[in-house]
Design brief:
Elements lengths: L1 H37 L4 H17 L6 H6 L8 H25 L5 H22 L7 H4 L2 H33 L10 H21 L8 H9 L1 H21 L4 H21 L1 H20 L20 H17 L1 H14 L12 H18 L4 H10 L15 H20 L6 H15 L8 H36 L1 H24 L5 H11 L3 H36 L2 H31 L2 H37 L7 H26 L3 H30 L6 H32 L6
Length: 751
C-alpha cells in the first residue's frame, strides 16, 4: 500500500510542473501587461526582464508552505489518508481550473483558487468525519476559516481600492504631463522617476524580498527600523540619476516600466510560488512522516507534523524557477491572458473582445448623466484647462502600442505601491486583482473608455471580476466533490481522477494549438487601424469587405442547403445544429460590421462620404439574408420536431432545381465579390429576377394545390410556402448586395 501513496506523491509533483506552467500563464498578466501594452521594449526584452525577475524570486524564495500545511485546516485532526485525498483533489482541481481560465483568456487569482480548493476539500472531509459516530469535533475544530475570510476581504479591497487609486493617480499624472508628454518633461521627469523608482524599491523591500532565504531576522529588523532613511536616500539618488539619464536622451519612462516589470515578476515568483508547489511539498512531508513513524494504517496515523513549518530544499526552488521561466517564454496562453487585459485598456478604439450587457449600458448611461450634471457646476475656465491637459488627439504612443508610457509607468508603480502598503498594513490584497484593477482605473482616467467603447470595456471588466468570484465557488465545490469521491472510492478513484485530469489537459493543449493566433483578416484589420495614410485605407477596406462577404455567402449557401435537406429528409438534428450556427453567425456579422465601420472612418472624408451608403447597404443585405435563413429554419425545425407530415414528392421535385439555381447564384456572387465585373454583375442580377419570377410560379401552383382541397398536407404546405417566400426575399437581398458591391468597387470620384 505504501508504494501506492508514493506513486500519488510523485503524481502530485508531476501535476505541480503543469500547475507551474498554467499558473505562470495566468499570472503573467500581472507583470507583462503594462510593458507590452506601452511597447516599452521589444517583446523579447520584456520577456527576458520578466524571466530574470521570476527566476530570481523563485530561486531565493524561502519556500514556507504554511498555507498548504496548516493555514486552512488543522492537520492534527486529520489522518494521512485524509490529507493525501485533500492534496490530490486540490492539485487536480487547480490545474484544470487554471487551464480553463487561460484558454478563455481570463485572468484569475492562483491564491484564491488554491485557498478555496483547500477549504472545499477540507470542508468535505470534515463533514464526513463529523458524520462518524466516534468524532466529537466541531467544524471550528477542524477548519481554520480565518484565512478564507481574509481572502474574501482581499477580493473586495483589491477591486475597489486599486480601481479608485488607479483612476485618481493617473488623472493627476496626466494633468501634469498631458498626452503630449515629451514637450513637458524638463525637471518633472527627474522627480517622477525618483518617486517611481523609490516606490519600486519600497515594494521590493516590503513585498518582494522580505521572506527570501537570505533575509535574516537581524536584516529584517534593520530594514524596518531604517525604512524612512532608506526611502529618503533612494528618492534623492534616483531623482538625480533619472534627471541625468533624461539629459543623456534616455527615455526615463521606459526605464521605470522595465524596473516595475522586474519587481512585480520577482515578487510574484517569490511569494506566489507556494500556490504551485506548496501542496505537493506538503504531501511529500506527510508521506515521509508516515513512512518514518506510521504504523502501517494510513487511516489512523494523524498528521501532527504538518503543524510545523518546513524549509524547501533549494533544488526544488531552482527547478520551479526553470519551469516558470520556460513557461513564461513559450506559453501562447500567457499572451492570450495578457491580450485580454491590454485590449480592455488600450487608448484607441478597435475590435472589442466583449459584447454589450444591460448592466454596462445602464452604468454608461448613468455616468454620462452624472458628468453632464457635474459640468454645470464646474467653471468654464477650469473645463477648458482640463480639456487642454486631456487632449487625446496629442497622444504619443510607441509604434503598435495600446497606451503610452506615462500610463504604463503609473500602472506598475502604483500596483507595486498598493501591494506594499497593503502588506505593511497586513491587508490581504491580491496581486492579480490589484494590477488588473489599477490598469482599468488608469484607462478610465485617460479617457480610453469613450462613448463608442465604454459599454464593451465595462462588460469585459464585469466579466473578469465575475470570473474571480466564480473561481472561488467552483474551486470550493469541485474540490469538495472530487475529495468525497476519492475518500469513498479509494485508490481506483484516485487513478481514474488522475487519468481524467491528464486527458483533459492534453486535449485542451491540442485544441489550443489548432487555433490560429492571428488570421489574415485580423492582420488586415490591425493594419488599417494603425495606418496614418487615409488614401491607403479604402483599398485595404475593399479587400477586407470582399473577404468577409465571401465567407458569409459561402456560409449562407451551406446553410440554405442544410435547411432544405433537413426539411425534406425530416432531419431534426441537422436543423437544430443549423439553428445554433445561425445564431453564432449573427454575432460574427455584428463584429465584422463594427470593425468595418471603424476602418471606414479612417478613410479620406470624400471617399467615406461617397461610399458610406453602399457600404451600409451591403452590410444590411448580409444581415437580411441571415434573417431570411433563420426564419426558414425556424418553421422547418418546429415542423420536423413535431413529427408532422413530410413534404409530398411532387414538391420535392419542384424544389430541387430551385436549390440548384440558388446555389449557382451564391457561387457566382462570391466570385464577383472577389473579382468584380460590371457586365457579369448586371447579368447575375437579371438572373435573380428570373429566379424570383420562378418562385412566384411555384407559389401560385402551391396555392392551386391547396384550393383543390388536399387538407392532409395543409400543415406542410404552409412551411413550404414560407420557404418559398423567404427564398424569394433572400434572392432580392442578394440582388441588392450585388448592386452595392458593384458601386463599392467603382473608382471614387476625384474632387
Amino acid at each position: 500500500m505504501d508504494i501506492v501513496f508514493l506513486g500519488i506523491v510523485i503524481f502530485l509533483f508531476l501535476l505541480a510542473v503543469f500547475d507551474l506552467s498554467v499558473g505562470v500563464s495566468n499570472d503573467a498578466v500581472n507583470f507583462l501587461n503594462s510593458a507590452i501594452g506601452s511597447r516599452a521594449a521589444t517583446f523579447k526584452v520584456v520577456i527576458t526582464v520578466a524571466a530574470v525577475g521570476v527566476f530570481v524570486g523563485a530561486s531565493m524564495s524561502n519556500g514556507m508552505m504554511d498555507i498548504a500545511r496548516h493555514g486552512i485546516f488543522r492537520p492534527e485532526h486529520f489522518t494521512f489518508y485524509d490529507v493525501i485525498c485533500i492534496f490530490m483533489a486540490v492539485m487536480v482541481t487547480d490545474i484544470i481550473l487554471l487551464d480553463v481560465f487561460n484558454t478563455l483568456g481570463m485572468p484569475t487569482s492562483t491564491t484564491v483558487s488554491m485557498v478555496f480548493e483547500l477549504l472545499g476539500a477540507a470542508f468535505a472531509i470534515s463533514l464526513l468525519k463529523m458524520a462518524g459516530d466516534s468524532c466529537d469535533l466541531t467544524l471550528g475544530d477542524l477548519l481554520n476559516t480565518e484565512k478564507a475570510i481574509s481572502v474574501i476581504l482581499g477580493i473586495f479591497l483589491s477591486v475597489a481600492v486599486a480601481f479608485v487609486f488607479g483612476m485618481v493617480v493617473q488623472w493627476l499624472s496626466r494633468a501634469i504631463f498631458t498626452f503630449n508628454y515629451r514637450s513637458r518633461l524638463r525637471w518633472k521627469i527627474g522627480i517622477f522617476g525618483g518617486v517611481a523608482s523609490t516606490a519600486i524599491i519600497y515594494f521590493l523591500l516590503i513585498k518582494g524580498i522580505k521572506d527570501l532565504a537570505f533575509m535574516t531576522p537581524e536584516l529584517k529588523a534593520w530594514i524596518n527600523g531604517n525604512t524612512p532613511l532608506i526611502i529618503g536616500g533612494c528618492f534623492v539618488f534616483f531623482t538625480v540619476l533619472m534627471q541625468i539619464l533624461h539629459m543623456l536622451k534616455v527615455n526615463v519612462f521606459k526605464v521605470v516600466v522595465l524596473m516595475g516589470t522586474f519587481s512585480l515578476a520577482m515578487a510574484f515568483a517569490g511569494n506566489d510560488l507556494v500556490n504551485f508547489i506548496g501542496v505537493p511539498l506538503s504531501g511529500l512531508s506527510a508521506y515521509n512522516d508516515y513512512i518514518a513513524n506510521g504504523t502501517g494504517d494510513p487511516g489512523a496515523f494523524m498528521m501532527n507534523s504538518l503543524n510545523g513549518s518546513a524549509n524547501t530544499p533549494v533544488y526544488f526552488l531552482l527547478g520551479a524557477g526553470v519551469v516558470m521561466v520556460v513557461s513564461l517564454a513559450t506559453s501562447k496562453k500567457a499572451r492570450k491572458v495578457v491580450e485580454t487585459s491590454v485590449n480592455l485598456t488600450r487608448q484607441d478604439v478597435g475590435d472589442e473582445m466583449f459584447g454589450s450587457s444591460r448592466l454596462s449600458r445602464n452604468l454608461v448611461r448613468w455616468t454620462i448623466g452624472f458628468v453632464s450634471w457635474l459640468k454645470e457646476y464646474i467653471p468654464q475656465g477650469v473645463r477648458q484647462w482640463i480639456g487642454r491637459r486631456f487632449n487625446t488627439s496629442e497622444v504619443i504612443m510607441e509604434n503598435g502600442a495600446a497606451f503610452d508610457l506615462v500610463r504604463g509607468s503609473v500602472n506598475l508603480v502604483l500596483a507595486g505601491a498598493l501591494i506594499a502598503a497593503g502588506t505593511s498594513l497586513k491587508l490581504p490584497l491580491s496581486t492579480t486583482y490589484v494590477t488588473f484593477m489599477v490598469a482599468m482605473g488608469t484607462s478610465l482616467a485617460d479617457r480610453a473608455w469613450g462613448r463608442e467603447s465604454a459599454v464593451f470595456r465595462i462588460t469585459g471588466v464585469i466579466s473578469v471580476i465575475g470570473g474571480w468570484f466564480i473561481t472561488a465557488g467552483v474551486a470550493f465545490i469541485a474540490a469538495g466533490i472530487i475529495v468525497t469521491l476519492m475518500h469513498f472510492g479509494g485508490t481506483p478513484v484516485m487513478v481514474i481522477v488522475a487519468i481524467a485530469a491528464l486527458v483533459l489537459l492534453i486535449r485542451s493543449n491540442i485544441v489550443a494549438k489548432r487555433k490560429k493566433a492571428d488570421s489574415a483578416d485580423d492582420v488586415l484589420f490591425q493594419t488599417m487601424l494603425k495606418t496614418d495614410d487615409s488614401t491607403r485605407v479604402w483599398g485595404l477596406l475593399k479587400e477586407y469587405l470582399a473577404r468577409q462577404q465571401s465567407e458569409f455567402l459561402n456560409f449562407a449557401k451551406d446553410s440554405y442547403d442544410k435547411v432544405a435537406t433537413g426539411f425534406i429528409g425530416d432531419e431534426a438534428k441537422t436543423l437544430n445544429r443549423l439553428e445554433k450556427s445561425l445564431m453564432k453567425e449573427k454575432d460574427v456579422l455584428k463584429s465584422a460590421r463594427r470593425k468595418e465601420t471603424l476602418c471606414l472612418r479612417k478613410a479620406s472624408p470624400d471617399v467615406a462620404i461617397e461610399k458610406s451608403a453602399w457600404f451600409h447597404l451591403s452590410n444590411n443585405c448580409c444581415m437580411a439574408i441571415l434573417y431570411n435563413l433563420r426564419r426558414i429554419n425556424e418553421m422547418c425545425l418546429e415542423h420536423v420536431n413535431n413529427n408532422f407530415p413530410l413534404l409530398p414528392a411532387k414538391f420535392v421535385v419542384d424544389l430541387t432545381p430551385l436549390r440548384e439555381r440558388i446555389d449557382a447564384i451564391f457561387d457566382e456572387s462570391v466570385e464577383l465579390i472577389e473579382h468584380p465585373d460590371v457586365n457579369r454583375t448586371t447579368a447575375l442580377r437579371k438572373e435573380c429576377d428570373r429566379v424570383k419570377d420562378h418562385i412566384s410560379e411555384l407559389s401560385r401552383s402551391t396555392y392551386d394545390h391547396l384550393r383543390e382541397g388536399d387538407t392532409r398536407s395543409l400543415t406542410v404546405m404552409y412551411v413550404y410556402l414560407n420557404l418559398l417566400n423567404e427564398t424569394q426575399e433572400l434572392v432580392s437581398n442578394m440582388r441588392k448586395l450585388l448592386r452595392a458591391s458593384m458601386k463599392l468597387n467603382l473608382p471614387p470620384r476625384m474632387r
